[in-house]
Amino acid sequence: MNPKSAAKRAQREERNYLDRVRPHDWKNPEPQVIYDLAILGAGPAGIEAAETAARAGFKVALIERNRLGGNSLNAGSIPSKAVIRTANVYAQMHDADEFGAPMPTEPAVDFTNVMARMRAIRSRIGEYHTAPRFARIGVDLFFGEACFTDRNAIAVAGAHISFRKALIATGARPRPSNIPGLDMVGYRTSDSIFDMTALPKRIAVIGGGPLGCEIAQALRRLGPQVTILQNDAKFLPREERDAAEILSRSMARCGVEIRLNTTVTGARKGDNGVILKTYNNDIEVDLETDQVLLSIGRVPNLDGLGLDKAHVAYDAKRGIIVDDFLCTANPDIYAAGDVCMALKFTNAAQASAQMAVENALCGGKGRHDALMIPWCTYCDPEIAHIGLHIWEARRDAVPIRTFTVMMHDIDRAVTDSQDGGFIKIHVAQHSDKILGATITASHASEMINEVSVLMNAGIGMMALARMPHAYPTQSQGILLAARAFMSDKSAGACSPGRSKASPRR
Amino acid sequence: MDPALSDDEALPTRLQKAAFSYFTEFCDSDTGLVADTSRDGSPASIAVVGFALSCYPIGVKNGWMSRADAARQTLKILRFFSRSEQSKDPDATGYKGLYYHFLDMKTGKRVWRCELSLIDSALLMAGILVAGVYYEGGGDDEAEIRKLSDELYRRADWHWSESGDGTIAQGWKPECHFLNYGWEGYNEATILYFLGLGSPDFALSSHGYTSWGLTYQWERLLGQDVLYSGPLFTHYFSHAWIDFRGIRDAFMREKNSDYFQNTIRTIALHREYACRNPLAFSGYNRDFWGVTAGDGPGDQDLRANGRDRRFFGYMSRGIPYGPDDGTIAPWAMLAALPFDPQAALAGTRHLLQAYPQVCQDGRFASGFNPTLEKNGTGWLSQGCYGLDQGLLVMMIENHRSGMIWDLFRRSSYVRTGLERAGFSGGWLRT
Predict the structure, then answer these.
(1) Chain B interface, mutation test: which of A232, A239, A282, most B Cβ atoms within 10 Å?
(2) Strand pairing category for A298-300 and A159-168
(3) Domain A3-19+34-174+299-370 belongs to what topology?
(4) Could you tell me the pTM of the whole model?
(5) Does A281 sit within 8 Å of B179, measured CB to CB?
(6) Which residues of A touch B308 (CB under 8 A)?
(7) Mean pLDDT, range B9-18, rounded to an integer
C-alpha cells in the first residue's frame, strides 16, 4: 500500500472507530427516576458491570466521560497487542533461515501501515462497544463528566441521576513525570505512544515495568534503537527471577539495551535530541534520544468525582479504598477495576466488576482477594502467572514443591522453534493441590488459562495427569508437569484421599 | 587408555599438585597477595588469597611445601591485612575489617574502583580461619598466625552490611556507599552468612539468614528435586570449607535433604542437561558438563546451522534456565569429586582425552567452548584463574582425607555461625 492510501485508510478507520465508541451526535437519554445501579466509567470494569446488572434485570445507568472501552481498548491492551503482532512478524522475517526459509532482504518498515492496521483492529473490536448496543441491552448510556452530588446522586451533563447503588470504575492513567525538565522537552506515555505518526531513530523508555518492556521490544523490532532506563536493580522485579532473566536475554538479543539501577534525574533539549541525565551508582551518564516513553506505573482516576460529597474514602496513590467485598466507605457505593485494585489488568477489572455487582445488588459475599486471576507480560517470550509465587509461599510458610518442564522438552515447542522458557507449577508439599504457576514461553498467555481452569475448578495434579491433551501442543507441557508429579517417588506420601483438590473425592 | 588417566588415585593427585603450584607461583614476595589469574598484570583477588591460605596446609600435608614455608607465607599475608589501610579512602585496602575485591599485588591498594565485596571478604576470612586452626604449633610464627587470624576475623563488621530487613548488601564503594544488590535465591553466599553469624562482636542478625531462605526455590527439574541455583560453582564454594553431610537447617529439614545431597543432585541435573543438550552445543554429553561462572569467548554473535549463537565473556552461566552459550569450565567436573567420584573421574577422563588442550601444565583453563570453533579446536580461555585452582585443590583433598572440612569444623566461630543459622544434627552433635 502506498503511503497516501495507508494514511487515508488510517483516517477512515479512525472515523469509524470514533463513531462507535464516542458518536458525535449522541444524545443522552432522559434519566429515569432512580437507577438500581449507576456506573462511573465505561472501561472493561464498567461495561462488564453494566452487562451483568442489565442481564439480571436491573435498571442501569452507564456514564463515560471519554470513549467506551476504556484504556484497554483505546490505548492499552488492544493497540499494543496489534503492534506487537506486527513487530513479531518482522522478527520472524529476520529469523526466517532458522525455519529453513530464505531470509527476505532487509524488509522495510512502513510505520503508517502498522498504525493503520492497529486502528482497523481497534475499530473492529470497538464494534462490540458501540453506543447503541447498550441501549439495546437496556442500559442508559450517558456521555459526560460524572460528579457525585450527595450520597446517592450524580450529576452528569446537566442531568441528575439518582441511584440505589453505584459503582466507581473510572480506571487509572499513566503516572505523570516527576523528572525535572521532562515536561518541557515532552514525552509520551502508554496512552499516547501509538499516536506517533513516524518512528523516531532512538527511544528511551523510562521505567522497566511489563508495559514498558512490551512496547520497548515491539518498537525495537520495528527499527528504532531502544534503551530501557530503570531505577530498580533487578529487571522486572515482580516476576520470578528465572523468567525475568530469560526475557532480559531475549530483549538483549533483539537489541534492546537495558540499563538497570539507573535513575533519570533530569531532561533537557540538546542539539540533536533530548538529553536525559542518568545515574548508575556513582556514574553519571547523559543519554541522547529522540523520543521518551515514560512508563512508571499508573495512578487512579479520582479527580472531579465529588468523592467527598458521596462520603467515599480514597488515597491519591492507592485509589478508592474498598473493603474485602469491594464496598467503599459509603455502603451504597462500590468500586472495581484499576481505580481500586492492585492488579491493574483488564481481566482483573472485569472479574472485580462482576463481583462488585453481585455483592451490591444480589447480596453476594465475594472477596476480591479470593479472585484467582492470571496475568501476562506480552513480550517475546511471554511471561504468564497465576496464584502464588514461590517467594510468597515461602513468606507465608506454605511448604511447596515446584514441578518444572522446560519448553525444550516439549515436542511442539521444538517443532516450532519456540523452545525457550519453562512451565513451573507450584504444588502444596503434601498434596496435589496447585497453588500457582509461572509460564515463560512464546504462547504463555494462552497456556496459563489451562492452569486458571484447573485452579478455579479445584483440579489437582493427580487428576490432571489423567486428562488427555492434544498432541503435539505446547500446552501438553502442563500435562508433563503432572506426569513428573506422578513419577515422583515421594508422591507416595500423597494419596488421593489426602488431596483436597482432586475431583475424585 | 593413557595410563596417566586411568588411575583413580594418581590422576587427581597429579592435577591437584599442578593446581596447588599456582599459589606458590603467582604470589607477591612482599605482600603475599595472590593474583586473580595467571595473566600478566593481574591484580590480587582477596577470594583467591582465601583459597591460598586454605591450600598451603594441603601442600604441607602432601609434601609439596614445608610447614615452615607455609607458615611464613601465611604470616606474610595475615600481616599484610592486619597492617594495610582500613578507611573510607578510595585507595585503601579495606574498611570495617572487610576488603576490596581486587588489590594491587605490590601495594595492596584497591584497584579498578572495585567494590568492597562481602562474599569475597568471606572467602578470604574462611582461609584466615583455616590458618588459625591449622597452625597450632609452638613456634613464634604459628603463635602470631593464630593471634592475627583471630584479630582479623573478629574485627570484620558483617553487621554493618546488613539493612533493616536483614538483607546483606553485595558490596560497598566509597563513591556511592552500598550497592543496590542483595542476595536472592540459593547461591554461594551460604559461607558468608555462617561467617557473619559466627562473629562475637559484629554478627549478622539471624533473621537475615531466614529471610534469605525465603527466596529459595525447591524445584523438580529434569527428574531431580533440587534447591535450585543455576551456576555449578554456587553448589561448590561453601562446601570447600564446610562438610554439609548430615547437618541441616530449617529449609533442609522441611525438604528432608541436606546441602551436600543437594549438590549431588545438582551434579546429576547438570549431567542430564548436558545429555539432553537442548541448545545443541558441540561436545555436551553425560561426561562433558560444568556450566558455571567463568571466562567465555566474549560478546560476539554467530549464526550457525540455522541457530542464533550468542557468546558471552566472563559471566555467571547456569542451567537449565541459562545463560548457556556452550562454554563449560574444564575444572568443574573434577571438583565434583567429593560428591560424585564416578561422575567426576569419568568426565575428567573424557575431557582430557577428547580435548587435552584444556589442561596446560596440569592446570585447567577457566573456560572452554568447542561450539565456537577456532582453528578447529574450540575457544579456550587463556591462562588460568586462582579461584578454579584453589577450589580444585580443596575439593580433591576433601575427597581424599576430609582435611579442610575437619580443620574448619574445629573453629568455634564456624560452629556458632552454623548454629545461629539453625543448623543441627550430624557432626554438630559432637
Answers:
(1) A282
(2) unpaired
(3) FAD/NAD(P)-binding domain (3.50.50)
(4) 0.93
(5) yes
(6) 95, 98, 253
(7) 97
